[in-house]
Design a protein that fits this description.
- Helices cover about 55% and strands about 15% of the residues.
- The chain is of the alpha/beta class and about 450 residues long.
- It has 3 domains: about 160 residues, Beta Polymerase, domain 2; about 150 residues, 3-Layer(aba) Sandwich (Rossmann fold), CATH 3.40.50; about 90 residues.
- It is elongated, with a radius of gyration of 28 Å.
């Protein structure tokens, strides 16, 4: 099995395409099952956030699996596969591991160093595990990625500035209405639409910045009540949006809806009661919650994920990381590189396990055959004598095999170590069963561009 990551993010695709690919939590199991029904995929995890959609997969062939994943994403987006491919990035084997570690560390985030991605990655793995979609390879990868992310955040201070998507959007929005966050938020009335993870993060951020009134609106009022209780706000249902919009100075919308929650007609009805007070609307949802016409209403300023991405990374990914503490990004990259080397060594070492098991099995078979022959030639031996001879022979074989098998595991952990398992198989004529090979983890140690030969 090999690792493959296929995805797109705010850096490679426009928001309208990300909207089409976004996968609400309730639809993830179905997508995972469809992916696993494809011929070249044996494990899968799907990560879908406000600025990325990625498929992590254990695959038996690079090109076949790429076509499988591309076909599912194309069907979901309504795009032709060729058109979709222009916005996709592909990481294979060791580069797939590196990318996963960088995602977990927040190095690939819109706001570099934000910690929310750790929870999102954990949630994606949990959903996939409940759907029985990841196996040994993705389990090891995701668990290690989460540990790498925690290490980066605890050792580098990469998130010391306390920035996340919400605070970055507040900074951008406040400037557009002539203020400066967080001072602009003081004594303002804030409305958060949506009580999921992003809604809760928004509520926590606004509460910390001292808004005068905090309202959490959600389709399920019970869930809104839980978020409101945790952050000193009050809950309401979506049926009360017009009245709450009329009173609000700031709206943060972050639902998982596939339709517009804040339509132009709805917001227009509320602005009629606002007596000319400006309204800042932050649309942090993908797909977008706010209808395009809302931005055209007088006194209303809308900031969405697309604008936020452009403001945070105007260099297109070539400039310095916004908001990250000085020196933290190089330190984080070093941790990722160190952890990558360690993890790839573990994977290469794990790959030799079926060969070692086959060698020990061959030795046991030879011993069993010779002991049966001895019993036929020397029928006068007692049961106790036969048992002593068997123990001695087994002990000799185990001692002979111990050093070579320990050493081959050590050598296999080094770059290029997969050749040692091949030599063992050749020398002893070992036939490693397909099932055992499938259980092993194989990640290429160097090249990231696969050849057809490596896919076998």
């Amino acid at each position: 099995m090999n690792l493959l990551v296929v995805g797109m993010s705010h850096r490679t695709a426009p928001v309208d395409l990300l909207e089409k690919l976004a996968v609400p939590g309730g639809e993830l199991p179905d997508l995972l099952h469809r992916l696993l029904a494809r011929p070249y995929l044996s494990e899968a995890v799907v990560l879908s956030t406000c600025n990325r959609v990625e498929v992590y997969a254990a695959v038996s062939a690079f090109h076949g699996a790429l076509a499988d994943i591309g076909g599912e994403l194309a069907a979901r987006s309504g795009y032709d596969v060729a058109a979709l491919a222009e916005h996709l990035y592909v990481h294979y084997d060791d580069e797939a591991v590196r990318h996963t570690f960088r995602v977990a560390a927040g190095l690939d985030s819109m706001v570099v160093g934000e910690a929310q991605i750790l929870g999102q990655l954990r949630d994606a793995y949990t959903v996939a595990r409940d759907a029985e979609a990841p196996g040994r390879l993705l389990h090891e990868l995701l668990q290690q990625a989460l540990r790498v992310g925690k290490r980066v955040h605890s050792e580098t201070g990469i998130d010391r500035a306390g920035q996340n998507v919400v605070t970055a959007a507040l900074d951008l929005g406040a400037r557009q209405v002539g203020g400066a966050a967080p001072a602009w938020l003081a004594e303002k009335n804030a409305l958060v639409v949506g009580a999921g993870a992003m809604g809760a993060l928004s509520a926590a951020t606004l509460s910390r910045h001292g808004v005068a009134d905090l309202v959490i609106a959600n389709r399920g009022v019970d869930r809104a009540a839980r978020v409101a209780t945790n952050h000193g706000g009050r809950p309401t249902g979506l049926s009360d949006l017009v009245g709450e919009l009329a009173a609000a100075d700031l709206v943060v919308s972050a639902t998982a809806s596939h339709g517009h929650v804040l339509t132009a007609d709805l917001v227009a009805a509320a602005t009629a009661e606002r007596a000319g007070r400006p309204l800042l609307v932050l649309d942090l949802a993908v797909p977008r919650d706010v209808e395009a016409g809302v931005a055209e209403l007088p006194g209303v300023v809308v900031v969405d994920i697309e604008q936020l991405g452009s403001s945070l990374d105007p260099s297109g990914g070539t400039g310095p990381a916004p908001f990250a503490a000085e020196g933290s990004v190089p330190a984080a990259e070093r941790i990722v590189a160190d952890e990558l080397d360690t993890f790839l060594g573990f994977l290469r070492s794990a790959n030799v396990a079926p060969t070692v098991a086959a060698l020990r099995g061959r030795a046991e078979d030879v011993v069993s055959v010779e002991l049966r022959r001895l019993a036929q030639r020397r029928p006068e031996l007692t049961d106790a004598q036969r048992a002593d001879i068997a123990r001695t022979v087994h002990r000799v074989v185990q001692r002979l095999l111990h050093q070579p098998t320990v050493r081959v595991r050590e050598l296999a952990a080094e770059p290029g170590g997969d050749r040692y398992a091949a030599v063992l198989r050749e020398l002893f004529g070992l036939d490693v069963a397909e099932g055992a090979a499938a259980e092993a983890i194989r990640v290429a140690p160097t090249e990231n561009t696969p050849t057809e030969g490596r896919e076998k």
